[in-house]
Design a protein that fits this description.
Helices cover 28% and strands 24% of the residues. The protein is built from 16 helices and 27 strands. Bound molecules: S-adenosylmethionine. S-adenosylmethionine is lined by residues 79-80, 101, 103, 106-109, 293, 295-297, 320, 322-323, 325, 340-343, 346.
Length: 617
């Protein structure tokens, strides 16, 4: 058989199916859950409360395109493939600018560093071990194909999200820039490549047998004709190397060209930056910006991109958001934004970064929650064979048990496995673990004369923690509640053994009335991470008191559905390491019973919440 090659294209294993057909990009649309609303005015918050509360506050996509119409910027926690395909319903053809800085390999960044407590001692929480590094390199050695597979699907989705006048910037280094350019040519058309930008920087290097790598490549593609570009945006312009005025005086050359030329104006306006940018310093050398997020990019870089390529009321997105540089710069330049990342530390870093921007407009934190998990379970463990709405339960439970280091147990009703002498129950993938469910596990353990039971869950019925463990203790059973971490859904994390099941943290909060009418303050009294053995030694050695584990805490004074409406917040910053343990006072308008919800985010990016009913009279 002979075949004719008719065009140049990049081919990698996985691009075509067995029949030689280009694999289609799957477009799954899942609903978003709003888990948190930040910086809303009090009036808006109160108005929201009067809506019909639902168990999960699903984002309906019914807000308008301006803040006046109810638009809120969006920080989304989840895998960007599902996030983007779920955004298509509302945003196909609506995003004006997308910037991405995809990691060299897939998956979130597990290692990160942060200061601990009031000191400025920085600890790296999860340094790659040699074995992990090797695993990473091995994956990569096999993995350029899967990298291209990963990215090509996502680039197709980005193209579909871009507006007709929209622009995409893809930030890469020498290892993959040429491959990705060919991918982009395929997806966007080579005529839509408008720039190959070289971001050049300098810095120390250990390389001395080659020239040190000191530039990145940023491909700039437009969606089609009529793209937006503002050559006059000040961020896109540079000062002349030599003042034109001075030059004209010295040589007379310029004055000969145009006598009416206003040199001061020319000098002030500068020239449009060329496609190599050497005036942007890397973050490591900008103390005021550095959040110690390993791959953080400088704001000046994003400012040039956003100011030149997104109209003033336009929408900017970054689907590999990291520390939130794109969102922060879009916020400062008054553009609307969407940022997503699958790492919890990335989402938390972005949330804090935005809160630190003066006048930051309202934004919401969303995820695909149980829908994403259910989708993952169906893809990983197979379809709902008995048609009862549950995914292949047995395999799901066996998988979680294995990651937890437990063996399956048969013939029991609620208990699924054993680990040493403890029995294990695995919570459903798509619903919270309920109090009844835990009581049933404790009952069964009592009947089996077991002394210890571990319940693993993704989400928990609110407020169940303390009384239920005490109750079990009275019945002679040690009850341990552990969180199934999101990393369970990341094949790479699982392969690397990066999955820890933390015990639910213990949080003690008091709501205290002040002398003023209907006024209260919230006080954080204690926060305990029950698995100190899972905390890396170097972090543990720097912890002096319980509050050192707390990075951020916030209060919703009137929690009424599943969305946390941030009413008061405090957090540590790089500059100010102190943390208030009492909130500002909050005055209610009227007497009544209110549910106060307090949310703590610890230094690992995990959150723990507690609801405290208060009677105000
Ligand atoms: C190179 S960093 C981006 C850094 C960012 N430009 C900044 O200035 O902070 C890449 C980010 O992509 C995230 N990521 C990797 N795979 C992802 C995926 N499938 N979905 C969403 N985020 C992903 C990682 O967690 C990481 O934070």
């Amino acid at each position: 058989m002979s075949f004719e090659i008719t065009r140049t294209e990049l081919v990698w294993p996985g691009k075509y199916d067995e029949d030689g057909k280009r694999r289609e990009v799957e477009r799954v649309s899942l609903p978003f859950q709003v888990i948190e609303r930040v910086n809303e005015s009090r009036a808006t918050r109160e108005a929201e409360k009067t809506r019909n509360p639902s168990l999960f506050d699903i984002w309906q996509g019914d807000s308008g395109e301006t803040f006046e119409d109810g638009w809120r910027n969006k920080l989304i926690w989840g895998d960007n493939k599902l996030v983007m395909s779920s955004l298509l319903d509302q945003f196909a053809g609506k995003i004006d600018l997308i910037y991405i800085d995809p990691p060299f390999a897939t998956g979130s960044d597990f290692s990160f560093s942060a200061p601990i407590g009031e000191t400025d001692q920085v600890s790296v929480f999860k340094e790659q071990s040699l074995i992990e590094e090797k695993a990473y390199r091995d994956t990569w050695a096999r993995g350029r194909d899967s990298y291209l597979d990963m990215l090509s699907d996502r680039l197709v989705l980005m193209r579909d999200l871009l507006s007709p006048g929209g622009t995409l910037y893809v930030h890469l280094d020498y290892r993959v820039d040429s491959h990705v350019r060919l991918l982009l040519d395929d997806i966007f058309g080579d005529k839509n490549l408008r720039n190959s930008i070289a971001w050049c920087y300098t810095g120390p290097s250990r390389v001395n047998r080659d020239f040190p790598d000191k530039h990145d490549t940023i491909w700039r593609y437009v969606r089609g004709e009529g793209h937006y570009f503002d050559p006059d945006a000040p961020e896109a312009r540079l000062g002349y190397a030599k003042s034109l005025k001075a030059a004209s005086k010295a040589t007379g050359i310029y004055s000969a060209r145009d006598e009416d030329l206003d040199y001061d104006e020319y000098d002030a306006r500068g020239k449009l930056a060329e496609d190599w940018w050497s005036d942007v310093t890397p973050v490591g050398r900008i103390q005021t910006e550095d959040l110690k997020y390993p791959t953080q990019k400088p704001e000046k870089l994003l400012a040039r991109i956003i100011a030149s390529s997104c109209r003033p009321d336009g929408l900017v997105a970054d689907f590999f958001g990291g520390s939130g540089t794109t969102a922060a710069v879009a916020e400062k330049l008054g553009r609307r934004w969407i940022s997503s990342d699958l790492g919890r530390f990335a989402v938390h870093t972005t949330r804090k970064r935005l809160l630190g921007i003066e006048g930051c407009k309202p934004f919401e934190v969303l995820n695909l929650g149980k829908y994403e998990r259910k989708y993952w379970a169906v893809v990983t463990f197979g379809e709902d064979l008995d048609n009862d709405g549950l995914v292949s339960l047995y395999e799901y439970v066996a998988f979680v048990l294995k990651l937890y280091g437990a063996q399956p147990a048969t013939g029991l009703q609620h208990l699924h496995g054993r680990k040493g002498s403890a029995f294990i129950h695995v919570g459903a993938v798509d619903s919270p673990v309920t109090i009844d469910e835990i009581v049933a596990c404790v009952d069964e353990s009592v009947a089996l004369k077991a002394k210890e039971v571990h319940v693993l869950g993704w989400e928990w019925e609110m407020g169940l923690h303390d009384p239920i463990t005490d109750e079990a203790k009275k019945r002679g059973v040690k009850l341990v509640l552990r969180q199934i971490p999101r990393e369970v859904m990341e094949a790479q994390a699982v392969d690397k053994g990066d999955v820890e099941f933390f015990e639910l943290a213990y949080l003690d909060v008091e709501i205290v009335p002040t002398k003023k009418k209907y006024e209260v303050v919230a006080k954080l009294k204690n926060f305990v991470i029950p698995n100190p053995e899972l905390v890396p030694d170097d972090v543990r050695s720097k912890i002096r008191k319980w509050s050192d584990y707390v990075d951020y805490w916030a209060v919703d004074w009137n929690f009424s559905d599943d969305t946390f409406m941030q009413g008061w917040v405090t957090y540590r910053t790089r500059k100010d390491r102190t943390l208030d343990l009492a909130s500002d006072p909050h005055a209610y308008d009227a007497p009544g019973t209110y549910n106060v919800m307090v949310k703590v985010i610890d230094i690992f990016g995990n959150d723990t919440s507690k609801i405290i009913p208060v009677k105000v009279d």
